[in-house]
């Protein structure tokens, strides 16, 4: 399912259609103005202040890089809304691929972040192996490689015999191809990660109830906020994806219903696609709120203190777990 859909040129559109472009354009512009400097600050802070990165800090860096990459595509999409696509077939395919790549990278990074929090709280001894730099960067590579592979369908189905002024990733040879792509996307970008996150946070919540010192879980709340914000921003997209799958499955049994469903979601594609980009600019805002206790917000020094606290809290939990284990031997 495509993120952005342009139905024509402004000269032949109704006022409602123009409004469908104006609102997403405003959303995208705001995302760029906040996300580009915000994620840039996060990346610069981690690279300059943390030469030796813990697993959590490496994942935050991974997430910020993915968010910055997708934010840098925003000027192309905003121009697309106003003037149509003028950047050619290669750029359409490349930018579509970059968007999907960063989406998969983000969800995989967030899932790993939650698994790590689960391991630190519930299985602290087992999580100690994630402290080694070699394992950290190996897992980072394992995030980007499957993300790159799962993003490949948009290279195949983007812009084939592209109509003038359009860029889309939905040029399928058959409805079965479209159905398969949407099912894979829903499974790996939503259903499976959501199931993993649900299990992790269910067990973590049970563990937290047994802890006497709830202050140790403050950094866990920040990670939970990052996870929650991502899913809230992308939930509308995946709901429409499920509607698309349902419509395609009904195309033979109830063709009229199927066609109405497919036509109805086209009017929402631009809006939900633009809102989804909010997830790429919201993390620096969450970090800024979390850094308020350091007397400031969106500043490098405060971000560095926050990330240091994230690292130290994790290291402290692992050290305590190791001490308890040694005492029981």
From TrEMBL:
It is a multi-pass membrane protein. SUPFAM superfamilies: Family A G protein-coupled receptor-like. GO terms for cellular component: plasma membrane. One of its GO terms (molecular function) is leukotriene receptor activity. It comes from the Eukaryota. Residues 38-287 form the G-protein coupled receptors family 1 profile domain. It is found in: Cell membrane. Its main location: membrane. It holds the Pfam family 7tm_1. GO terms for biological process: inflammatory response; phospholipase C-activating G protein-coupled receptor signaling pathway; positive regulation of cytosolic calcium ion concentration. Belongs to the chemokine-like receptor (CMKLR) family. This is Leukotriene B4 receptor 1-like.
């Amino acid at each position: 399912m495509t993120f952005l859909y342009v139905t024509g040129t402004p000269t032949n559109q109704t006022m409602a259609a123009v409004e469908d472009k104006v609102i997403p354009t405003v959303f995208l512009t705001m995302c760029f103005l906040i996300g580009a400097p915000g994620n840039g600050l996060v990346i610069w802070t981690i690279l300059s202040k943390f030469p030796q990165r813990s697993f959590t800090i490496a994942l935050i860096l991974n997430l910020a890089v993915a968010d910055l990459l997708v934010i840098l595509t925003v000027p192309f999409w905003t121009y697309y809304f106003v003037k149509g696509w003028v950047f050619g077939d290669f750029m359409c395919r490349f930018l579509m691929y970059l968007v999907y790549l960063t989406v998969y990278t983000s969800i995989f990074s967030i899932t790993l972040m939650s698994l790590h929090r689960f391991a630190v709280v519930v299985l602290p001894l087992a999580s100690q192996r994630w402290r080694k730099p070699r394992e950290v960067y190996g897992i980072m590579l394992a995030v980007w490689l499957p993300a790159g592979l799962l993003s490949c369908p948009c290279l195949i189905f983007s812009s084939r015999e592209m109509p003038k002024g359009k860029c889309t990733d939905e040029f399928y040879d058959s409805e079965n191809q479209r159905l398969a792509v949407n099912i894979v996307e829903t499974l790996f970008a939503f259903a499976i990660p959501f199931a993993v996150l649900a299990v992790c946070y269910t067990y973590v919540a049970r563990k937290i109830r047994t802890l006497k010192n709830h202050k140790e879980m403050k950094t866990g709340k920040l990670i939970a906020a990052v996870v929650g914000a991502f899913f809230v921003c992308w939930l509308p997209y995946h709901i429409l994806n499920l509607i698309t799958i349902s419509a395609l499955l009904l195309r033979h049994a109830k063709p009229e219903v199927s066609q109405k469903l497919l036509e109805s979601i086209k009017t929402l594609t631009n809006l939900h696609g633009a809102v989804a980009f909010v997830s790429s600019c919201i993390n620096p805002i969450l970090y800024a709120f979390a850094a308020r206790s350091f007397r400031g917000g969106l500043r490098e020094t405060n971000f560095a203190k926050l990330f240091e606290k994230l690292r130290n809290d994790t290291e402290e939990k692992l050290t305590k777990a190791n001490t308890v284990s040694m005492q029981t031997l």
